[in-house]
Amino acid sequence: MYPFSYTKVSNTREAVNAGRNGGRYIAGGTTLVDLMRETVEHPETLVDISDLPLREVRVTERGGLRIGALVSMAETAVHSKVRTLFPVISQALELSASAQLRNMATIGGNIMQRTRCTYFRDVSAACNKREPGSGCAALQGVNRTHAILGTSDDCVATHPSDVAVAFAALEAQVHLLGPDGERHVPFADFLLRPGSTPQREQALRRGELITAVEIPALPRPLKSGYLKVRDRQSYEFALTSAAVALHVRGGVIRNAYVAAGGVGTVPWKLPAVEEALVGERPSDRLWAEAAGRAAGGARPLQHNRFKVELLQRTVERQLRTVGDSK
Amino acid sequence: MSPQPQAAVGAPLSRVDGRLKVTGQAKYAAEHDIKGAVHAVIVDASIGRGRITSIDAGDAEKHPGVLRVIHHRNAPKLPYRDNPGSNNPPGGRRLRVFQDDKVLFHGQPVAVVVATTLEAAQHGASLVQVEYDAEQSSTDLAEAEPGEPTNYARGDAQAGLRDAAVRLDLTYQLARNHHNPMEPHATLARWDGNKLTVWDKTQWVMGTHDELAAVFDLPADAVRVINPFVGGGFGSGLRCWPHTTVAALAARETKRPVKLVLSRRQMYFGTGFRPAYAYRLRLGSDRRGRLTAAIHGIDAETSSYETFTEAIMGAGQMTYSMPNVSQAYRQVPLDVNTPIWMRGPGFATASFAIESAMDELAHKLGIDPIELRRRNEPDEDESSNLPFSTRRLRECYTVGAREFGWHRRSSRPRSRREGDWLIGMGMAASVYDPGRFPAEARARLDADGTAVVETATSDMGPGTYTSQTQVAADALGLTMRTVTFRLGDSLYPQTGPHGGSATMASVGSAVVDACDKVRRQAVKLAVEDRDSPLYGVDAGDVVVRGGRLHVKGNPARGETYQRLLARNDRSHLEARGSYAGPPTPARRSYHAYGAAFAEVAVDATLGLVRVRRMLGVYDAGRIISPKLADSQAIGGIVGGIGGALLEHTVTDHRDGRIVNANLADYLVPVNADVPEVRAIYLDGEDNDGNELGVKGLGEVVQVGVAAALANAVFNATGRRVRELPITAEALL
C-alpha cells in the first residue's frame, strides 16, 4: 500500500472542495481499500464522506424513489419502499457480496466499484484500465468471466455491480454535486463504455460527488425481479444476470424495463428485448422470442462464448419468472 | 486392546482446545509475540521462466523502516545439504532461494524486504525493481512433453481389452486445486547465536526441523520448530516451503527475529497444490459387468526441478477384481512450483476417473451401479495377493443405499423433474490407503494425579489434541480434565508427518504405549507395596479408573494415584512409548473404505448444479471420537463438492501467471453450496498393526465425492461431464 493522507469531511461543501483538489472519496471502503492494498490504486488523499447527510431513502414528489448515496446496501435492500416499489433493487442487492460487505458498502460506492477483471487487479499484468497504453491481457488471456457486449480492443472487463443492472433497467438518474453545482445524469450515460479510454469509467467531472440515485416514477403496478447466475450460490459475481420490470394492464405488457449484468462492460440495457415485449400478451413464446434478442451485437471471446447462450436463457427465465408472477 | 475401561474413547466429546480457539487464545504461527520481531515480505517473479537481469532495490532501501533487501546478488550461499527426508521428492533439486538468477516459475521468490513494520515491508516490496530476460514458459499439461512413465501390469491388459465384450475409452480432466487453508502459511524465525528457532505453520514438525538443519547445515540440536496450532492444512503443510528458509535467512542477515506471512495470493505459488491430471481409462467387461481389463494412462503436472509423485495408481489396482491391468503414470514437467499432496491424495483423483467409468459401464449394461460394483468385489487385494485386514465395502453399499433411499433413483436419466430442476442421484466407492509410520510419545504422571503426554505431531484441525487426550486418558485411567496433551514442538518425541490419515494409528499407538507403561509402573508399585490395599494382587487384575487403581470387579479395594505416589515418595512416573510402524512385510492389505452418495438438482436451462443431499458411509475401523469424525467427514465431503463443482486454479499459459490467486476468484464452497451432509461409520475395528483398531478417516471422506456428484449430474441430465470442475457451460 502506498502512503496516503486521510481527511474526514463534515459537509458536502468541504467534500467537493477536497475532491476538486484531487482527493478520492471513500465511504464503506470495501472496494477502494482492497485495491489500495493490491497497489492497483494509490490515491494520495482519501476524503472520508461517511459523515455526510446522504443517508435517506425517500419517495419523491413525482412518485419515484431517491436513495441517498451513503445508504448502505443492506439498508437499501430492506427499506420498505424499496421492497414494495422495486423488489428488483432489493433482490439485486441481497444477491450481492456478503452480509458483512453489504453492511459497509454504500449505494454510491456500489455503482463506483471497479471491475473484477483479474488482470486489472494484478499489477504485474498489462491493463489499459489501470495503466493506459499497457495493453489488455484479458483480450487473449483467460476471459471466461469477461464481457461480450460493449467491449473494445482496449478493454473487455465487466462492470461488477448487481444493483447497477437494476438501476440501468429502471432508467435511474444519478444525482451529482460538483464545484459548479448540482446536476443529474441518466444512468445509461453515467457509466462509460471503455472505447479507447477504459481508464475513464464514469461521466464524473473533477470533484463531483454522487449524492443520490433516483428511480423515476414508473407506471404501477410494476412487477420486478432480479436473477443472478453464478457458479457458487453465494458471494460471487454474476456470470450473467437479468433485471426485469414489467407493467401489465389488461393482459398486455404496457411497459418493460430489462437489463443484463455480467455480460457488458457496463450494465447492459436491452431495448430490443423491451420493444419485443411492449404491446404483447405474456406467453412462454413471447419470453423466448424477446430473450432471443438479448445478445444482439455480442462479441464473445475465447473462454466466454457460452455467455451468448446463457444470457438469452437468463433473460428468458427472468421474463417468465416476473411475467408469470402475481 | 487395552484391558482398561474405555470411558473417553468413543465418546462424542467437544474439542479440548475449543475454548482457546473461539476466544482467540490459540496462537497460530504468525501470532506468537516474539520480542523485537521485524517483518519480511517476499517479492515474487513476474515472469514464468527466464533470468533476472537486474535488481534495483534503491527505492525500497530508502523507504522509512526498511532494514534490508535480500536477493541473489547479495544473499550468502546456503549449504542446502541433501535431505531426502522432509518430503523432498527424490531426485531433482529443490528450489534454492536467492542462490542464482534463474526464474523457474511465475511467483518464485526473487527478493525479500525486511522492515520494522509490515506496512513498510509491503510497500518496500512493491518498490523493488526487477528486470528479467523472459523465456516462453510451459505450463499447459496438454501441450508439454511427459517424462518417463512408472508402470504397473498384471495379466495382459491389451489382450483383455481386445477380447472384452464391452469396452469403454474415456478421458477425464481434473483441474489443479489449491488447499486454501484459512490460516496463511507463516514463519517466525529467531536466531540465538547459532541456534535457530522457528514458529511455523507446518503439518510436520520434524520434517521442517530436518529441512532447516539441512538448508543451513546445522546440527539437529541447533534447530527447534514450534507449532502448537495449525489453522487448516489439507496437505499444504507437509513440506518446508521456500518462504520458511527465506524467513530464517532474513533473520540471520538482519540479526533480528523475522516474521514472514504469505499473502493469500502468494499461497498459490509459495506452497504446493493438487496437480492437474489427464486420466485416460480404457475399461473392458463381459456382458454381465464382470471387469476383464483396464488400461490407465495417467498424466500429471510436476515442476521442472522436482518430480512429484503421489499414490495415483493404487485405486486402479485394488478397488475391483479383474485379471488384466496396466498403468502408466507420467509426470509432465512444467514451469510451475512443485505440487504437494492434498486431501485424499491420488485416490481422490483416480476415483473420479474409475468411479465415473464404473457408472458409465453400469448405464451401458443396464445394471444398477451398486450391483455392478458388487459383481466386481475382489476376494483379496489383487495388487499384492494379500488378504484384506478388513474390507466392508459391501456393507457400506447396503447401509448407504438404505439410508439414502437409493431405490427411489430411476436408472433412466432425466426422469425426475421439479419445476426448472432436474433431479438425479449418484454414488461412488471410496478407497484410501492410510499411512502408518514410526512414532514416539512421552507420558508423565505427576504426584497430583494429573498427566502430561507429549509428542511432536501437529493438529491441523482434525482434533488431534482431543482424540489423543481421549486415548491417553483411558490408557492412564484418568479423566479428560486431568490429562494434558502437548504437540507441535520438535523437542518432543518424534513422529512422522501429520497427514495421510496416519496420525491416529501411529501417534495414537505410541501414546497408548507410553500411557500403558506408566499405568503398569503404578500398578506394579501398588501390588508390591505392603501399605497399599492392592498389595499382593495380580497386576493383571488391577485397572485404573478416574485416577484410582482398583481390583477389576471390586472397586472398593484400591487407592488413588495420588496416595500411591505420595506414600512412595515419588514426584512422578514417566515412560516413553513408541509405535514401530506397520508389520513388514505386510501381512494384510489395510485400507479405509466408504461409499459416497449424492443427490443433485440441475437447472435444465441455466446449467447450474446444486447439491441437495450427501451421505458417506465409512468402513474406517474404530471411531475414537465421533464428534470429531463428523467434522472430518463433513469437511471432506465439502472439499469434494469444491473439487467437483468449483475449485480450479487457472493459469494463463502465455506467461505462467495464476489468474485467480485469491479467494474471490478461486471458488471454494460457501455455506449456501453445502446441503444436508450425513456420515455413518460401520461399527468395528481393524487391528492390523495398530492396537487402537483404527484405519484413519481424514482422507477417505473426500475420495469418491466428485464421482458421486458427476454420476448424479448424469442421472439428472443425461449429460456425462468428464472434466472437473463441472461448470455451467458444460451443461448448457
UniProtKB/TrEMBL annotation, chain A:
The keyword Oxidoreductase applies. Residues 1-220 form the FAD-binding PCMH-type domain. Keywords: Oxidoreductase. It holds the Pfam family CO_deh_flav_C. SUPFAM superfamilies: CO dehydrogenase flavoprotein C-terminal domain-like (SSF55447), FAD-binding/transporter-associated domain-like (SSF56176). InterPro entries: CO_DH_flav_C (IPR005107), CO_DH_flav_C_dom_sf (IPR036683), Diverse_Substr_Oxidored (IPR051312), FAD-bd_PCMH (IPR016166), FAD-bd_PCMH-like_sf (IPR036318), FAD-bd_PCMH_sub1 (IPR016167), FAD-bd_PCMH_sub2 (IPR016169), Mopterin_DH_FAD-bd (IPR002346). It comes from Streptomyces flaveus. This is Carbon-monoxide dehydrogenase medium subunit. Coiled coil: none annotated. The keyword Oxidoreductase applies.
Automatic annotation (TrEMBL), chain B:
One of its GO terms (molecular function) is iron ion binding. The lineage of its organism: Bacteria, Bacillati, Actinomycetota, Actinomycetes, Kitasatosporales. It comes from the Bacteria. It comes from Streptomyces flaveus. This is Carbon-monoxide dehydrogenase large subunit. SUPFAM superfamilies: CO dehydrogenase molybdoprotein N-domain-like, Molybdenum cofactor-binding domain. InterPro entries: Ald_Oxase/Xan_DH_a/b, Ald_Oxase/Xan_DH_a/b_sf, Ald_Oxase/xanthine_DH-like, AldOxase/xan_DH_MoCoBD1, AldOxase/xan_DH_MoCoBD2, AldOxase/xan_DH_Mopterin-bd_sf. Gene3D superfamilies: Aldehyde oxidase/xanthine dehydrogenase, a/b hammerhead (3.90.1170.50), Aldehyde oxidase/xanthine dehydrogenase, molybdopterin binding domain (3.30.365.10). Residues 23-136 form the Aldehyde oxidase/xanthine dehydrogenase a/b hammerhead domain.
